[in-house]
Amino acid sequence: MAKKVLEILTETMFYVLMSFLRQERCGIEIAEFVEQKTAGRVRMGPGTLYTILAKFEEEGLISEIRVEGRKRTYRITARGIEAYHEEISRLRACINDAESEGEI
Amino acid sequence: MSKSVRRWIPVSLYEIAGIESWLSDLSAQGLALERFGLYFAYFRRTESCKMIYRLELLPRPMEEPDDEMLDFYLHNGWEYVTTLNRLFWVFRALPGTAEIHTDAVAQGYAYDKLSRKLKQSAIVVFAAFLLIAAMIAGIYLFSEWPVLQLVEDSIALNQFLLLLVELAAVIQAFRIYRAIRHLVRRLKSGLPMEHYGNYRRGRNVHVAASVMLSAAVIASMFFPIWGMKKNWEMPLSEVSSPLPLLPLDMVEKSPLFAYRSSLFQGKDHDNFVRYEWSVLSPVQYQIGQRGIVSGEEWPDHSGEYSPSMQIRYYRLVSSALSDPLIDDLIYRYVERYYAPDNNFDRMKLSAAGLDRAELFTAAGRQILLIHAGNQVMMLRYYGEKNLAEYTDTLAGILARWSE
């Protein structure tokens, strides 16, 4: 069984991982993606962004692919995609559990 | 208005909230942080402008944030100031700026890594302490004459200081580890980091501990060198200053007695004075004397009569050490050294001014040990005269030396 990389993906971490699905991104692009995707609901401070990127890179969920001028660009790895799908499954299960309880 | 000023860092660098509060309070007094040193932080005088400061754990090993990071922090209102101890970046912003961290759990992952490192280093420091303590204890516990060794050892204090420094390092390492582990638990439970810390409460203790530790480290380096520099050795005939000396010619009383030198590599190994310093005995002398009495032979006709005397004198820092030192000297120079012969007669002597006097006599040799207050003297004599006759003289010598 593969090592469990992170105990839990927080909402911010989940969106950061999501931001890489379609393209490689640098830090500022990730922050913009999250802001747009959540319509400003999820705000990501700079410390949080770079802490998550460092943690994801350390755990092998993303990898740095190039440094150009002031930009450091990353892309998701197979392990990152796997972690992303695991989180989607978990969230779906949560939603299904909630829906099976019906409306109040 | 641009003069740099320094302030003593009032708390450990790992008391993050305390450092942040302190920097913020100083900014309100018109001191803007420039950089951190080992004990001091350096500030630039500015207009009084309250700022908020944040210590940001380095996300990866790098001295400064890269350009993209700097842009993004600045875009969010945070200005990079300096790097602290290759562990934290220091940022500042105007009050009301949105926080650097918006996800406590994610921040907890970063501190989790630091916590594991701190745990490892605390264990290593503790193991080193145990090793050093065992080595130092071993030197004295397994010594056959521990008090004598401590008294003569010029690095005994050095070892003690080293142990103290190491103990302080162990306590500090575990304190830091405990504080960061507590922080990790808080963050992982979703609670954001505290940014207010009362740095005034432990300020004096922290500053005093830092000063004392530094002094201990410097002293532990300085004492052995100082001790060695104080030591000297000279031929007895060249020493003009008073010595704790019972002259051999006074004991022999013969007009035919003459001191005899034995020169080897320019040093007189028979008639010499050696001065040594140690913490427990700041004044120590070893004095050697040897001579011949022309025309006289040893009673067993083994050759020309050539008496000698070695004196050891100790002025101790405490008279409580005198008796244990004499016991060790007896063991070292009588019981242990002459154990195979085991033929010494032991005699307790008394003289005004002496707290203890014991004479060990065997054929052709005597060992006299005396102490008065914090002074201890041992005379090892090879000759045919009786040292017991000189206890009053020796009491007088010690009385003069105690003044």
From TrEMBL, chain A:
Name of a matching Pfam family: PadR
Domain Transcription regulator PadR N-terminal: 17-85
Alphabetical list of Gene3D superfamilies matching this protein: Winged helix-like DNA-binding domain superfamily/Winged helix DNA-binding domain
Protein name per its UniProtKB record: Helix-turn-helix transcriptional regulator
Database matches in SUPFAM superfamilies: Winged helix' DNA-binding domain
Highest taxon listed in the record's lineage: Bacteria
Organism lineage string: Bacteria, Bacillati, Bacillota, Clostridia, Eubacteriales
InterPro entries documented for this protein: Metal_resp_DNA-bind_regulator, Tscrpt_reg_PadR_N, WH-like_DNA-bd_sf, WH_DNA-bd_sf
Organism: Yanshouia hominis
